[in-house]
What does this fold into?
Amino acid sequence: MKRAADFRARARAALSGNWGEAVVTTLVASLLGANVLMSGTSSVSGVFSSNNENYQKMAEDLPPEVMKYVLGFVVAVGSVMTIIGIVRFIVGGFVSLGLIQYNMNLIDGAEGQFSDLFSKSSLLGKALWLRVRMGIFIFLWTLLLIIPGIIKYYSYSMSGFIMAENPEIDAKEAMTISIDMMKGNKWRLFCLGFSFIGWALLSLLTMGIGFLFLGPYVNASYASFYDDISREYSS
It folds into this structure.
């Protein structure tokens, strides 16, 4: 049975000679709200709302005639950020499938191309519903306790890979297959993700620049993981 080190080694081999394009592709996908595990991205408006108390305190110290302009600006910026967040969530669904396809191509030894990001645009509706459905189910399980929510997160984690590889299936089928496929594999995926902690800490020391290279490395490793367990599942 392969371990985290094996998946990372295969990812490095696949990325050899492709790092430049992989960095650009992953960065653009991230800006569009995509990730290979199809989890919902936090809206940029969250940063704005998290500082809401600070804005209120600042407004209280301003003269009334100035405060109305400040509040108008705050509302306008908040609205724009909310719209951007919604667009990223919608577009990020099918772009996530495209990012998965890009990494699967790399792992299979094929030439990954930037255009792969938009190769699943015809699945916009399915991808969006998959993302929403996963979010709802994980949220509901989390309401019980944090641990069940985390377990379900890993159970549904391969749904995007499954839909990217089988575009004819719907969100429910993708999640059902993922649950079955991840039986006995959830801990392995957790260990794979955890194995990047050291690299993440090193990336912080580079003022975040290292994350540009860590992202493609992680994504390719997850693609290697899916390729391995899907073959076991099919056999």
Residues 4-42+87-234 form one domain. Confidence is low (pLDDT under 50) at residues 41-51. The two ends are 15 Å apart (CA to CA). Residues 64-107 form the longest helix (44 residues).
